[in-house]
Amino acid sequence: MENALPACKGRPREFCTQQALAAALRVFWSKGYEGASMADLTEAMGITKPSLYAAFGNKESLFHKALDLYEAEKLAYIRDSLDQPTARGVAEHLLRGALKAMTSQTEPKGCLGVIHSVACGSEAESIKAEVVARRASVQTAITARFQRAVDEGDLRPDVDPEALANLLYAVLQGMAVQAGSGVPSDQLDALVDSALALWPSR
Predict the structure, then answer these.
(1) Single pTM value for the model
(2) DSSP letters along 39-50, please?
């Protein structure tokens, strides 16, 4: 994947930055930006605070790098969904991929983006803005894909591509919140089935 971090080579530092960043990602994912203290991060990463600053910058810079890693490794299904041959296929690939990511047995539950888009403290304002901007970029791409579906006759001409993309994202955000609160995966799978049953295909 284009944004994946390269493998560790040599010994420029006493720790592997890729492994440390993956550990930081899990802390942010499970605790949120505001809830993740520097002590939490350094303990999980297995490094000292000076080493963290030297390798990643401050906490905000570390989060941005962790978010890049999250998008590269955990959200590849979003890029793949845009290549599906039909608009319904786009939606199904996106929803099924999200469900798998949100209910993984080896990762924190829910969606990192949703966790941080609802952060409310002053410290997290720039983080929230960054997450919202990245989400908007994805929604724009999905809207364009749905517009193409309308133009090609895959979707009815009365379908509003932007509204449909917003609806799809609302379902995804709802799934993320429920997954994060412990709703079983079979219930979320049924939610996906219901959403797809209402899809406005021709």
Answers:
(1) 0.69
(2) HHHHHHHT--HH
